Amino acid sequence: MPKNLQDTVALHNGVEMPWFGLGVFKVEDGQEVINSVKYAIKAGYKSIDTAKIYENEEGVGQAIKESGIARDELFITTKVWNADQGYDSTLQAFETSLQKLGLDYLDLYLIHWPGKDKYKETWKALEKLYKDGKVRAIGVSNFQIHHLEDLLADAEIKPMVNQVELHPLLTQVELREYCKKQGIQIEAWSPLAQGQLLDNEVLKEIADKHGKSTAQVILRWDLQNGIVTIPKSIKEQRIIENADVFDFELSAEDMEKINALNQNHRVGPDPDKLFF
Fold first, then answer.
1. Is 218 helix (H, G, I), strand (E, B) or coil?
2. What phi, psi does 222 have (nearest 5°)?
């Protein structure tokens, strides 16, 4: 179990990835994202997760620069967008993202969605970037078991990470078990179901018992399940609070109660239907 915000999990290639990070989906480029990332780094976060489609890579890069933290202490993730899928276009998209972030290399580069029929070509491009030392780890996002099986049939390098929508309303148990067998680390986006769970009675009861917030209980549940998690916030107090999850432990009974909340309910798109 991670003991603090800087604790890491070893990906299957030996690269250490922090268990806990900041997501910046829907955070506006410019001062809003710069502040959000700087608050997080000041609070001890080492991992920042962005994507081309969030249109805030420049602000993230600016915040990294202004934070004064050594580059090798940080873990930076971005993603190739659907419209850029394909071999050459992915290589190009990577360079653009790197430039916007103002970095020499990335820690993790992900295929954002499987899309329709190009992810194998896209993956070949990620393998090249990895072999060329431009990115320390490569992975996918929103891949279901059938996408992974299809990808693995031809892949030279197995994805190190699969970042998916995952929270107590969508526990993704089968996918988690499959990825565990394959040595692919699961990472949760939208771990708080975009706020839909914060008033849940079961979670409130568990939170009261531990003297914590419902958000903290959910994020602790992620960690105890071996899931890397990246909650998003733009408020400094909330960013600090979200990470205050290392001083308590959920009991087996708490964990079971949270697991039982699953409804296979998505707050984001279904990866089998998002084809653009």
1. helix
2. -55, -55
Q: Where are the beta strands (DSSP E) in the chain?
A: 8-10, 16-18, 21-23, 47-49, 75-80, 106-111, 135-141, 161-165, 185-189, 228-229
Q: Model confidence over 211-269: pLDDT tens digits?
A: 999 999 999 999 999 999 999 999 999 999 999 999 999 999 999 999 999 999 999 99
The 8-class DSSP code of residue 236 comes to H
- In degrees, to the nearest 5, what angle opens at C-alpha 172 toward C-alphas 166 and 177? 125
Q: Determine which one of 39, 54, 109, 119 is catalytic.
A: 54
54 counts as catalytic: yes
Query: HSE-up of 72 (CA within 13 Å, CB side)?
Result: 1
Q: Which residues pair with 120 in a beta bridge?
A: none
Token representation of residue 141: 């996002």
Question: CA–CA separation, 126 vs 155, rounded Å?
Answer: 10
Q: Are 255 and 245 in contact (CB under 8 A)?
A: no
Closest CA to 84 of 98, 94, 76: 94
pTM of the model: 0.97
Domains in the chain, please, with CATH? Answer: 17-195+226-236 (3.20.20.100)
Contacting residues for 71 by C-beta, under 8 A, at least 6 apart? 64, 103, 104
Alpha carbon of residue 30 to chain centroid = 22
Separation between Cα atoms, residue 176 and residue 7, nearest integer Å: 21
